[in-house]
């Protein structure tokens, strides 16, 4: 969903919680409902959809996603929890089953806050009365996220739609982009230094290992070093670290990361998933850099 892509984190040491991170001035082409000059959206529950018809429904669902993005950006997890069902909280944070809102809110002090921007909603389909599915695009950090989101209408409040489930989709990069390949083999990134000149980048990442790995892209301030991640308690990033993108790759799988509006500079990617001893792969040297250079005139 517009949800935090379940970033940074599928399984970090000492974390039972999978961060959704909670999963651009660019307009992604092909949206049935693109976002024009997007108005500022506050973190609040949208009004119930009272008008009849597809247009009203699509607009209402879009408002739910926009409010969700605003709440995640603000770190207002209490209000955000009112935009989703307990089924969704359990799917993303509780390992399955239901997770009640009170228990979820009690967990949120350790959740990192990441900027989330709504880009559009399309392919809206009614599954059955009170259940709708749609494809949603958001930008989390600098990463384009595409998901199929299931919305469920509250039984006690007609016209009030909540996010109930989400399934990740392969993101489609805008037409003008630069493509790169990254392989994970022998618990190392290859190459461990990428160079690009385009602000829009598609990374195809292949995990050839027999264990899961992650690609966590960060921007480090002057003086910050990757080793500080190993000393930071909880899920928060250390001071001087900015989240850009994340992808978890199960063993023997591949995936894509689409980066948008990347500014010139050097970024660091690491793997913070734990090895068999519970130690992040970063401690074994699993890291690399992505350098964005000024385009040649």
Radius of gyration, whole Å = 19 Å
Poorly predicted regions are: 1-38
The overall strand count is: 14
Strand fraction equals: 25-35%
- How many helices? The count is 4
Q: Estimate the helix proportion, in percent.
A: 10-25%
In terms of quaternary structure, the protein is single chain
**Main β-sheet description:** 5 strands, antiparallel
Explain this structure.
- This protein is mainly beta.
- The protein contains four helices and 14 strands.
- Helix content is 14%, strand content 35%.
- Strands 1-2-3-4-5 form a five-stranded antiparallel β-sheet, covered by helices on one side.
- Strand 3 and strand 4 form a beta hairpin.
- The model is unreliable at 1-38 (pLDDT under 50).
Summarize the structure.
The protein has 297 residues and is mainly beta.
List keywords for this structure.
five-stranded antiparallel β-sheet
Tell me the layout of helices and strands:
Blueprint: E1 33-34, H1 54-74, H2 77-81, H3 86-93, H4 101-107, E2 116-128, E3 131-140, E4 143-153, E5 161-169, E6 178-185, E7 188-190, E8 193-196, E9 201-207, E10 213-220, E11 241-249, E12 253-259, E13 265-270, E14 287-292
Parallel strand pairs: 6-9, 8-14
Antiparallel strand pairs: 1-2, 2-3, 3-4, 4-5, 6-7, 9-12, 10-11, 10-13, 13-14
């Amino acid at each position: 969903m517009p949800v935090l892509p379940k970033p940074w984190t599928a399984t970090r040491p000492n974390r039972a919680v999978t961060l959704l991170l909670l999963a651009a001035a660019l307009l992604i082409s092909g949206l049935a409902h693109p976002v024009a000059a997007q108005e500022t959206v506050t973190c609040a529950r949208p009004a119930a959809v009272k008008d009849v018809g597809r247009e009203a429904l699509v607009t209402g669902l879009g408002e739910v996603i926009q409010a969700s993005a605003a709440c995640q950006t603000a770190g207002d997890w209490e209000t955000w929890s009112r935009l989703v069902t307990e089924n969704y909280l359990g799917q993303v944070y509780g390992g399955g089953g239901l997770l009640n809102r009170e228990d979820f809110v009690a967990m949120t002090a350790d959740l990192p806050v990441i900027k989330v921007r709504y880009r559009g909603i399309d392919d809206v389909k009614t599954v059955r009365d009170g259940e709708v599915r749609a494809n949603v695009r958001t930008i989390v950090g600098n990463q384009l996220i595409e998901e199929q989101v299931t919305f469920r209408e509250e039984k006690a409040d007609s016209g009030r739609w909540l996010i109930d489930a989400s399934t990740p989709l392969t993101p489609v990069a805008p037409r003008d982009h630069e493509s790169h390949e990254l392989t994970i083999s022998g618990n190392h990134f290859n190459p461990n230094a990428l160079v690009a000149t385009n602000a829009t980048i598609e990374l195809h990442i292949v995990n050839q290992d027999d264990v899961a790995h992650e690609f966590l892209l960060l921007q480090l301030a002057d003086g910050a070093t990757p080793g500080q991640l190993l000393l930071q308690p909880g899920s928060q990033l250390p001071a001087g670290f900015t989240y850009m993108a994340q992808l978890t790759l199960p063993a023997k799988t591949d995936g894509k990361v689409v980066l948008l509006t990347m500014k010139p500079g050097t970024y660091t990617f690491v793997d913070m998933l734990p090895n068999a001893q519970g130690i992040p792969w970063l401690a074994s040297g699993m890291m690399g850099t992505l350098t964005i250079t000024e385009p040649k005139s």
